[in-house]
Amino acid sequence: MAQASTRFLLAGVMGWPVMHSRSPMLHNYWMQQHGLAGTYLPLAIAPDGLAAALRSLHPLGFAGCNLTIPHKQTAMAIVDEVDTVAKRIGAISCVHVRADGSLAGTNNDCFGFIHSLKQEQPAWRADAGPAVVLGAGGGARAVCYALMQEGAKEIRIVNRSLERAQTLAGEFAVAGVSLQALPWERRHDALAGAAMVVNTTSQGMAGQGALDIKLDALPRTALAADIIYVPLETPFLAAARQRGNPTWNGLGMLLHQARPAWKLWFGLEPQVTVELRELIERSL
Ligand SMILES: NC(=O)c1ccc[n+]([C@@H]2O[C@H](COP(=O)([O-])OP(=O)(O)OC[C@H]3O[C@@H](n4cnc5c(N)ncnc54)[C@H](OP(=O)(O)O)[C@@H]3O)[C@@H](O)[C@H]2O)c1
């Protein structure tokens, strides 16, 4: 705390491209809200410059940084330590510069997913029934990790490339949890009896085609979730809402994943407020 009040605070997000990122808006809102002298910068770092950029954080006085596309996997081999969560997910979303200048990597996407769900859907329970996860990429790994941490007992992973779903199910296998990898053709009927379905594919994102899925088998009480936040309501979520399902979008996940970084970097615990959400929503 003492450190945070006497230094000019520096953090940022490394990506390529990076100017579309909402992270500077979000973190600089918290800087202002906490009355801090500091800034959070967008850092356009080409892939071949990532190692040098990460090593420059300490001499430049940065507390750390977030990582976005395409750096999340590559950074794992550059930082000095990767924690268990990031190893499980296979990607780093946040780097912390420790006092001795060494770099520690973690992944806060699962934290963001769960804390957003709990804030926006307080009645939600991971063990309420089967969860269907559509996709098997980095987002899916964070979601599966989070659901299992919260006590999910059955997860059906449906992916276009079955092999990727099988790898995920194999790596995450633990006693007492049913993890099924299903082929993409099964995406419609995999929804039968589900308590929740989460889209973690890129389908439905601005500039991409809509997710091709029939919701007939999905119970109307099931939560339809999409980790995409551009647009805020994907065609999948709109279809689920129109048939009466409760829905949840990925904006809260983005906002909440930023919180643990502040604890690491500055020893502070900022909150996701209605005002912050509205600020980011207006920018989308
Ligand atoms: N809200 C947040 O904070 C947050 C955090 C992370 C990610 N996201 C969002 O989540 C989405 C996925 O990100 P990611 O990092 O997981 O990406 P990723 O690792 O590249 O995975 C992409 C996933 O989409 C699937 N996919 C791509 N094109 C498809 C198609 N035409 N039909 C069916 N499936 C298709 C891929 O299937 P294959 O394996 O067959 O290629 C894979 O499962 C992005 O929209 C991203 O913005 C949001």
Structure description:
This protein is an alpha/beta fold and 284 residues long. The chain contains eleven helices and twelve strands. The strands form two sheets. It has a six-stranded mixed β-sheet, sandwiched between helices. α5 packs across α6 (138-149) and α5 packs across α9 (251-257). The radius of gyration is 19 Å and the shape is globular. The model has no long low-confidence stretch (mean pLDDT 96). Bound molecules: NADP nicotinamide-adenine-dinucleotide phosphate. NADP nicotinamide-adenine-dinucleotide phosphate binds next to α5, α6 and α9.
Topology summary:
Blueprint: H1 2-6, E1 9-15, H2 23-33, E2 38-44, H3 50-60, E3 64-67, E4 81-82, H4 84-89, E5 94-97, E6 103-106, H5 109-120, E7 131-134, H6 138-149, E8 154-159, H7 162-172, E9 178-183, E10 196-199, E11 223-226, H8 235-242, E12 247-248, H9 251-257, H10 259-266, H11 274-283
Parallel strand pairs: 1-2, 1-3, 4-6, 7-8, 7-10, 8-9, 10-11, 11-12
Antiparallel strand pairs: 3-5, 5-6
The structure holds NADP nicotinamide-adenine-dinucleotide phosphate.
